[in-house]
Design brief:
about 180 residues, alpha+beta, PH-domain like, 2 domains, four-stranded antiparallel β-sheet, three-stranded antiparallel β-sheet, 6 helices, elongated, disordered N terminus, disordered C terminus
Length: about 180
Amino acid sequence: MSSKKISVEGQDFEGQRAGEEVVFIFRRHIIAMRKGFYLLLIPFALSAIPPLIWQSNLELFLLPLGGLVLGLTLFFYHFMMWYFTVYIVTTERIRQVTQRGLFGKDVVELRLSKIQNISYNIPGFSGEVFGFGTIVIQTFVGDLVIRQVDHPEKTYNKLQDVVSSVVETPQGLHEENIT
C-alpha cells in the first residue's frame, strides 16, 4: 500500500499501512494564503500606474498585462504550497504533509496513542469572523502547533473523538501501558 498517493476523494495516501483507515483530512484556512493574494495584486496594481500617468503612450497599456501574468505566477506558487499541505488523521496517527517549494515536502507523524492533550484557540475578531484558529496537540516530546486551521472547533471535536476512540479500545490501552 505504500505506493498510494494523497487523494482526498479516494482517502488514500502514500505510506498508508495495511488496515489503517483515513478518518478525515483537513488543511489550513484559505487566509493562510493571504501573501499569495498580495503578490497577485501588488504587481498588477503597480504596473497599472504608468499607463494612467502617460495615457498618450499606447505601449504602456500592455504593462498591466505583464503585471497580471507575474502576479498570477506568484499566486500559483503560493496556492500550490497551500493546497498540497494537508493533515491526514487516520485510525492510528496524524500525518502532517507540508509542501516546501515546488519539489520538496516535509512529513511529520504523530501516533494517536502518544497524544496527551488537544486544545484550540481562536485569535480574536478576525478569527471569529473568518472562521480560523490554532490547534495545539500536546505530547510527551513536544507540541504540534497547527496555525490558521479552518473551523478549529469542528476539527478539534473530530480530533478529540478519534483520540478518545484509540484510548478506549483495548489495543489503545495496551499501547498506553507499554510506553
